Amino acid sequence: MLTSKFEDLLTFLKNKRILITTHEPIDVDGLASGFALKYFLENSSHDVRLYFPEFTRISKIFLERMARKFPDHDFSFEKTCNLEKIDIVLIVDTSNLGLIKSINLSDTKHIFIDHHPLNIEKNTNNLKSLNIVLEDYTSAVEIISEFFFTYNIDIPLPLKWLMMSGIMTDSGFFKYANNKTMIKVASILSDDLKIQDAYLLLKTEEEYSEKMARIKGLQRLKLIQEKNVLIGLSSVSNFESMLANTLIAIGFDISIVISKKKKDPIMTVRARKEITTKIGLHLGKLMQEIASNLETSAGGHEGAASMTGIKDIDMAQNTLLKRIKQIINDQL
Ligand SMILES: [Mn+2]
Q1: Within its chain, how far is the Cα of 329 from the centroid?
Q2: pTM to 2 decimals?
Q3: Could you give the angle at the alpha carbon of 91 between the alpha carbons of 70 and 261, nearest 5°?
Q4: Residues 119 and 299: beta-carbon distance below 8 Å
Q5: How far does the centroid of ligand 1 lie from the alpha carbon of residue 170, in Å?
Q6: How far apart are the CA of 203 and the centre of ligand 1, in A?
Q7: 228: CA distance to ligand 1 center in Å?
Q8: Percent of the chain with pLDDT over 90
Q9: How far away, in angstroms, is 214 Cα from ligand 1 center?
Protein backbone atom coordinates (compact mmCIF):
# COMPACT_ATOMS: atom_id res chain seq x y z
CA MET A 1 0.00 0.00 0.00
CA LEU A 2 2.72 2.42 1.07
CA THR A 3 4.84 1.49 -1.96
CA SER A 4 2.05 2.40 -4.36
CA LYS A 5 1.51 5.74 -2.52
CA PHE A 6 5.23 6.44 -2.87
CA GLU A 7 5.13 5.49 -6.57
CA ASP A 8 2.22 7.87 -7.20
CA LEU A 9 3.93 10.70 -5.36
CA LEU A 10 7.31 10.26 -7.04
CA THR A 11 5.71 10.01 -10.50
CA PHE A 12 3.85 13.24 -9.82
CA LEU A 13 7.01 15.02 -8.59
CA LYS A 14 9.00 14.28 -11.75
CA ASN A 15 10.32 17.47 -13.39
CA LYS A 16 8.58 19.69 -10.84
CA ARG A 17 10.21 22.41 -8.77
CA ILE A 18 9.71 21.27 -5.20
CA LEU A 19 9.69 23.16 -1.91
CA ILE A 20 9.79 21.27 1.39
CA THR A 21 8.67 22.94 4.60
CA THR A 22 7.10 22.19 7.97
CA HIS A 23 5.28 23.81 10.92
CA GLU A 24 6.74 26.89 12.67
CA PRO A 25 8.65 27.03 14.90
CA ILE A 26 10.38 23.91 13.62
CA ASP A 27 10.91 21.07 16.08
CA VAL A 28 13.45 18.25 15.84
CA ASP A 29 11.05 15.93 13.97
CA GLY A 30 10.17 18.63 11.42
CA LEU A 31 13.84 19.47 10.98
CA ALA A 32 14.86 15.82 10.57
CA SER A 33 11.98 15.09 8.17
CA GLY A 34 12.84 18.11 6.01
CA PHE A 35 16.54 17.30 5.66
CA ALA A 36 15.93 13.58 5.11
CA LEU A 37 13.26 14.12 2.45
CA LYS A 38 15.42 16.72 0.69
CA TYR A 39 18.32 14.26 0.57
CA PHE A 40 16.12 11.44 -0.75
CA LEU A 41 14.63 13.59 -3.53
CA GLU A 42 17.97 15.12 -4.55
CA ASN A 43 19.41 11.63 -4.67
CA SER A 44 16.75 10.79 -7.26
CA SER A 45 17.54 13.95 -9.28
CA HIS A 46 14.67 16.20 -8.20
CA ASP A 47 14.84 19.97 -8.03
CA VAL A 48 14.33 20.61 -4.29
CA ARG A 49 14.50 23.54 -1.92
CA LEU A 50 14.12 23.36 1.84
CA TYR A 51 12.48 26.30 3.59
CA PHE A 52 13.12 26.61 7.36
CA PRO A 53 12.18 30.08 8.69
CA GLU A 54 12.19 29.63 12.47
CA PHE A 55 13.40 26.96 14.90
CA THR A 56 12.53 26.13 18.49
CA ARG A 57 15.36 26.73 20.95
CA ILE A 58 16.10 23.02 21.23
CA SER A 59 16.08 22.30 17.51
CA LYS A 60 18.35 25.30 16.91
CA ILE A 61 20.90 24.02 19.44
CA PHE A 62 20.53 20.50 18.04
CA LEU A 63 21.17 21.64 14.45
CA GLU A 64 24.28 23.59 15.52
CA ARG A 65 25.60 20.48 17.26
CA MET A 66 24.87 18.33 14.20
CA ALA A 67 26.65 20.78 11.90
CA ARG A 68 29.72 20.66 14.19
CA LYS A 69 29.62 16.87 14.42
CA PHE A 70 29.28 16.39 10.66
CA PRO A 71 31.04 19.38 9.07
CA ASP A 72 31.03 17.74 5.62
CA HIS A 73 27.31 17.09 5.49
CA ASP A 74 25.11 19.58 3.66
CA PHE A 75 22.76 21.10 6.24
CA SER A 76 21.85 24.05 4.02
CA PHE A 77 18.32 25.43 3.85
CA GLU A 78 16.58 28.66 2.89
CA LYS A 79 15.25 31.23 5.31
CA THR A 80 13.12 33.01 2.74
CA CYS A 81 11.14 31.59 -0.11
CA ASN A 82 9.75 32.70 -3.42
CA LEU A 83 6.67 30.67 -4.25
CA GLU A 84 6.66 31.88 -7.86
CA LYS A 85 9.50 29.51 -8.64
CA ILE A 86 7.79 26.53 -7.04
CA ASP A 87 5.39 24.02 -8.60
CA ILE A 88 4.58 21.97 -5.54
CA VAL A 89 5.09 22.25 -1.77
CA LEU A 90 5.67 19.14 0.32
CA ILE A 91 4.64 19.83 3.90
CA VAL A 92 6.12 17.46 6.46
CA ASP A 93 5.07 16.91 10.09
CA THR A 94 1.87 18.95 9.91
CA SER A 95 -1.31 18.97 7.87
CA ASN A 96 -2.39 22.31 9.26
CA LEU A 97 -1.60 25.37 7.14
CA GLY A 98 -2.40 27.55 10.16
CA LEU A 99 0.87 26.36 11.71
CA ILE A 100 2.89 27.79 8.79
CA LYS A 101 2.67 31.48 9.48
CA SER A 102 5.52 33.02 7.49
CA ILE A 103 4.03 32.18 4.08
CA ASN A 104 0.55 31.67 2.72
CA LEU A 105 0.39 28.27 1.05
CA SER A 106 -3.37 28.14 0.48
CA ASP A 107 -2.95 29.34 -3.13
CA THR A 108 -0.10 26.93 -3.93
CA LYS A 109 -0.51 23.22 -4.69
CA HIS A 110 0.66 21.23 -1.72
CA ILE A 111 0.88 17.69 -0.35
CA PHE A 112 1.06 16.61 3.30
CA ILE A 113 3.41 13.94 4.65
CA ASP A 114 2.41 13.73 8.27
CA HIS A 115 1.56 11.66 11.33
CA HIS A 116 -1.09 13.99 12.85
CA PRO A 117 -4.83 13.73 12.07
CA LEU A 118 -5.54 15.38 8.72
CA ASN A 119 -6.88 18.93 8.86
CA ILE A 120 -7.77 20.08 5.35
CA GLU A 121 -11.25 21.56 5.42
CA LYS A 122 -11.78 24.48 3.05
CA ASN A 123 -8.44 23.68 1.47
CA THR A 124 -8.70 23.34 -2.28
CA ASN A 125 -5.04 23.37 -3.28
CA ASN A 126 -4.21 20.27 -1.27
CA LEU A 127 -3.71 17.33 -3.66
CA LYS A 128 -5.59 15.01 -1.35
CA SER A 129 -5.01 11.75 -3.20
CA LEU A 130 -1.24 12.23 -2.90
CA ASN A 131 -1.13 12.98 0.86
CA ILE A 132 0.71 10.44 2.97
CA VAL A 133 -0.85 10.81 6.41
CA LEU A 134 -0.21 7.89 8.76
CA GLU A 135 -1.40 8.38 12.32
CA ASP A 136 0.11 5.12 13.56
CA TYR A 137 3.63 6.53 13.16
CA THR A 138 5.08 8.25 16.25
CA SER A 139 7.10 10.72 14.17
CA ALA A 140 7.04 12.12 10.64
CA VAL A 141 10.66 11.17 10.07
CA GLU A 142 9.73 7.47 10.41
CA ILE A 143 7.47 7.93 7.37
CA ILE A 144 10.35 9.62 5.51
CA SER A 145 12.66 6.73 6.47
CA GLU A 146 10.23 4.39 4.66
CA PHE A 147 11.20 6.08 1.37
CA PHE A 148 14.81 5.00 1.94
CA PHE A 149 13.88 1.45 2.96
CA THR A 150 11.38 1.02 0.12
CA TYR A 151 13.84 2.09 -2.57
CA ASN A 152 16.92 0.53 -0.91
CA ILE A 153 18.72 3.85 -0.60
CA ASP A 154 21.55 3.90 1.96
CA ILE A 155 20.90 6.41 4.72
CA PRO A 156 24.05 8.52 5.32
CA LEU A 157 25.20 8.58 8.94
CA PRO A 158 24.24 12.24 9.62
CA LEU A 159 20.70 11.50 8.44
CA LYS A 160 20.53 8.45 10.69
CA TRP A 161 21.37 10.74 13.61
CA LEU A 162 18.64 13.15 12.52
CA MET A 163 16.12 10.34 12.18
CA MET A 164 16.92 8.85 15.58
CA SER A 165 16.62 12.29 17.18
CA GLY A 166 13.27 13.01 15.50
CA ILE A 167 11.91 9.66 16.67
CA MET A 168 13.25 10.13 20.20
CA THR A 169 11.82 13.61 20.73
CA ASP A 170 8.41 12.90 19.16
CA SER A 171 7.98 9.61 21.02
CA GLY A 172 8.78 11.37 24.31
CA PHE A 173 12.01 9.38 24.48
CA PHE A 174 10.08 6.17 23.67
CA LYS A 175 7.33 6.72 26.21
CA TYR A 176 4.74 6.87 23.39
CA ALA A 177 6.58 4.46 21.10
CA ASN A 178 4.75 1.52 19.54
CA ASN A 179 6.16 -1.71 18.07
CA LYS A 180 6.61 -0.10 14.69
CA THR A 181 8.70 2.67 16.29
CA MET A 182 11.06 0.18 17.90
CA ILE A 183 11.46 -1.88 14.71
CA LYS A 184 12.35 1.30 12.84
CA VAL A 185 14.80 2.31 15.55
CA ALA A 186 16.49 -1.10 15.32
CA SER A 187 16.98 -0.68 11.59
CA ILE A 188 18.48 2.82 11.99
CA LEU A 189 20.91 2.16 14.85
CA SER A 190 24.41 1.04 13.90
CA ASP A 191 27.90 0.72 15.37
CA ASP A 192 28.57 4.38 14.63
CA LEU A 193 25.26 5.56 16.06
CA LYS A 194 24.78 4.56 19.66
CA ILE A 195 21.51 5.39 21.32
CA GLN A 196 23.15 6.93 24.42
CA ASP A 197 25.12 9.35 22.20
CA ALA A 198 21.89 10.44 20.55
CA TYR A 199 20.49 11.26 24.01
CA LEU A 200 23.48 13.49 24.71
CA LEU A 201 23.06 15.40 21.47
CA LEU A 202 19.50 16.31 22.47
CA LYS A 203 20.19 17.16 26.09
CA THR A 204 19.96 20.89 26.87
CA GLU A 205 20.14 22.85 30.09
CA GLU A 206 16.92 24.51 31.15
CA GLU A 207 17.11 28.29 30.87
CA TYR A 208 16.32 30.73 33.67
CA SER A 209 13.26 31.99 31.75
CA GLU A 210 11.99 28.43 31.46
CA LYS A 211 12.29 27.80 35.19
CA MET A 212 10.54 31.11 35.93
CA ALA A 213 7.70 30.24 33.54
CA ARG A 214 7.22 26.91 35.31
CA ILE A 215 7.21 28.48 38.78
CA LYS A 216 4.85 31.31 37.82
CA GLY A 217 2.59 28.89 36.00
CA LEU A 218 2.36 26.79 39.17
CA GLN A 219 1.54 29.89 41.23
CA ARG A 220 -1.40 30.65 38.93
CA LEU A 221 -2.59 27.06 38.91
CA LYS A 222 -6.30 26.33 39.34
CA LEU A 223 -7.57 22.86 40.21
CA ILE A 224 -10.89 21.65 38.81
CA GLN A 225 -12.32 18.32 39.88
CA GLU A 226 -14.90 16.68 37.67
CA LYS A 227 -15.96 13.20 38.84
CA ASN A 228 -12.48 12.48 40.21
CA VAL A 229 -10.80 13.68 37.03
CA LEU A 230 -8.23 16.30 37.99
CA ILE A 231 -8.00 19.20 35.57
CA GLY A 232 -5.32 21.89 35.90
CA LEU A 233 -5.72 25.35 34.39
CA SER A 234 -2.96 27.91 34.17
CA SER A 235 -1.41 30.62 32.05
CA VAL A 236 2.11 31.73 31.18
CA SER A 237 3.59 34.11 28.66
CA ASN A 238 5.93 31.48 27.23
CA PHE A 239 6.78 27.75 27.51
CA GLU A 240 3.10 26.77 27.62
CA SER A 241 3.81 23.20 26.38
CA MET A 242 6.44 22.68 29.03
CA LEU A 243 4.03 23.82 31.75
CA ALA A 244 1.22 21.64 30.40
CA ASN A 245 3.57 18.62 30.55
CA THR A 246 4.69 19.59 34.08
CA LEU A 247 1.07 19.61 35.27
CA ILE A 248 0.57 16.07 33.97
CA ALA A 249 3.85 15.02 35.59
CA ILE A 250 2.75 16.27 39.01
CA GLY A 251 -0.53 14.38 38.93
CA PHE A 252 -3.19 16.14 36.86
CA ASP A 253 -5.19 14.00 34.44
CA ILE A 254 -5.77 16.89 32.04
CA SER A 255 -3.96 20.23 31.77
CA ILE A 256 -5.03 23.32 29.85
CA VAL A 257 -2.50 26.14 29.60
CA ILE A 258 -2.98 29.41 27.79
CA SER A 259 -0.35 31.86 26.71
CA LYS A 260 -1.57 35.40 26.17
CA LYS A 261 1.30 36.35 23.93
CA LYS A 262 0.72 39.78 22.45
CA LYS A 263 0.42 38.84 18.80
CA ASP A 264 -0.53 35.21 18.77
CA PRO A 265 -2.23 33.68 21.82
CA ILE A 266 -1.89 29.90 22.18
CA MET A 267 -3.89 27.33 24.10
CA THR A 268 -2.31 23.97 24.72
CA VAL A 269 -3.83 20.89 26.31
CA ARG A 270 -2.52 17.54 27.56
CA ALA A 271 -4.18 14.44 28.93
CA ARG A 272 -3.02 11.21 30.44
CA LYS A 273 -3.29 8.13 28.22
CA GLU A 274 -5.44 6.32 30.83
CA ILE A 275 -7.98 9.14 30.80
CA THR A 276 -8.19 9.58 27.00
CA THR A 277 -8.79 5.84 26.67
CA LYS A 278 -11.28 5.71 29.53
CA ILE A 279 -13.51 8.56 28.34
CA GLY A 280 -12.82 8.28 24.60
CA LEU A 281 -11.22 11.70 24.42
CA HIS A 282 -9.14 12.75 21.39
CA LEU A 283 -7.70 16.18 22.13
CA GLY A 284 -6.53 16.81 18.55
CA LYS A 285 -10.02 16.21 17.16
CA LEU A 286 -11.77 18.08 19.99
CA MET A 287 -9.52 21.12 19.53
CA GLN A 288 -10.13 21.09 15.77
CA GLU A 289 -13.88 21.01 16.40
CA ILE A 290 -13.65 24.03 18.74
CA ALA A 291 -11.22 25.83 16.44
CA SER A 292 -13.57 25.59 13.47
CA ASN A 293 -16.27 27.38 15.51
CA LEU A 294 -13.80 30.08 16.55
CA GLU A 295 -12.41 30.51 13.02
CA THR A 296 -8.93 29.61 14.13
CA SER A 297 -6.71 26.57 13.71
CA ALA A 298 -5.72 23.68 15.91
CA GLY A 299 -4.02 20.34 15.63
CA GLY A 300 -2.52 17.53 17.62
CA HIS A 301 -2.76 13.99 18.82
CA GLU A 302 -5.01 12.08 21.17
CA GLY A 303 -3.15 13.21 24.30
CA ALA A 304 -1.65 16.55 23.25
CA ALA A 305 -2.97 19.38 21.12
CA SER A 306 -2.75 23.13 20.66
CA MET A 307 -4.69 25.99 19.13
CA THR A 308 -3.26 29.23 17.77
CA GLY A 309 -4.55 32.55 16.48
CA ILE A 310 -7.28 32.85 19.11
CA LYS A 311 -9.09 36.17 19.44
CA ASP A 312 -10.65 35.64 22.86
CA ILE A 313 -8.38 33.24 24.71
CA ASP A 314 -10.34 33.15 27.98
CA MET A 315 -13.47 32.24 26.05
CA ALA A 316 -11.56 29.50 24.17
CA GLN A 317 -10.29 28.06 27.46
CA ASN A 318 -13.81 28.09 28.94
CA THR A 319 -15.25 26.43 25.84
CA LEU A 320 -12.64 23.68 25.94
CA LEU A 321 -13.13 23.13 29.67
CA LYS A 322 -16.91 22.94 29.20
CA ARG A 323 -16.60 20.36 26.39
CA ILE A 324 -14.15 18.25 28.42
CA LYS A 325 -16.49 18.33 31.44
CA GLN A 326 -19.36 17.29 29.19
CA ILE A 327 -17.37 14.32 27.84
CA ILE A 328 -16.38 13.29 31.38
CA ASN A 329 -20.01 13.44 32.55
CA ASP A 330 -21.25 11.51 29.52
CA GLN A 331 -18.67 8.77 29.91
CA LEU A 332 -18.20 8.31 33.67
MN1 LIG B 1 6.19 15.18 14.53
Answers
A1: 31
A2: 0.78
A3: 90
A4: yes
A5: 6
A6: 18
A7: 32
A8: 83
A9: 24
